[in-house]
Task: structure prediction
Amino acid sequence: MKMECNDISAKGGPTCPRWAVYWHATRPRFLTASIVPVLVGTAAGLATTGRLDWPMFITALAGTVLIHAGSNVVNDYYDHLSGNDWVNPSPTPYSGGRQFIQRGILCPRATLGLGLLLLAAGGCIGIGIVAYTGSLFILALGLAGVLGGYFYTARPIQLGYRGVGEVVIGLLFGLLPVYGSYYLQGRSIDGLPLLPGLILSALIFLVILINEFPDRIADQQVGKRTLVVLFGPSTATRVYRTVLAATVALAGWQVCADIAGWAGLMYLLTLPLCIKAFNQVGLYLAGGADPLAANATTIKLHLVGGLCMAIGLVLDGRYTGPITYLRS
Result:
């Protein structure tokens, strides 16, 4: 049976199983944002140790994805309370929230309950990892993930409403999970995952930024100060293009400096996709392209770019031997 929430009527309730409603409430198309950094960090760990700790990888992946899914659902609840999703005239598959509360598919209480349950499940996995490793570093990363995800839209902090949400998400879905999963493979912290982590942080920053364009009017109405609201679409487009170019520059630096050079080289294979995204965001601003094309391309770039870097890190370990860059 095809589980599409387009099959869910606005008033008549779900026409697909309840579990499918809960699944789609987590916004599964965006869960790659938490899967990819764990893959990259784990691949970096494999490159340094020459072995893969499968149980730790699977456990870290499960915890990270659950926290991400819970954050997505909780954010929809608090965007309901703020009125943000109610005043959005044109939600898209990439922005404007899941609209399950607005369409009468899930009540606010069920939405909050589902989100908190997923966050608690992810948190319990994190506690188990901390108990097993005894690592305060992992504890700090886990707390940052849970609190950052919850307070992205929750009062009183509302990170996404204060002009810092894009950077926070960049860290929570870039450097932090990359370093966390890297540490779990080799129990060390060094400079190897830094550049791949920065590239991933930049890519998820771009995903958030481009998804804010369609929501600009609704965000303005409820006082949600995203970068697109604060600086306008024109400046936001320049920011997008600058950050996108920076990812290519960082990858080129990896290759030239031979810092996990295969990872940088593999990312450069996405250059045609980078150029496509670079052009589409300009056409988007000018009204000469499908408004959703740039959103879809940016999400694809994050996924493909991250997977390419993960493969490149594995190749780095295979052809150069265990990497000890900046290892203490």
Notes: Residues 227-257 form the longest helix (31 residues). The chain has one domain: 13-320.
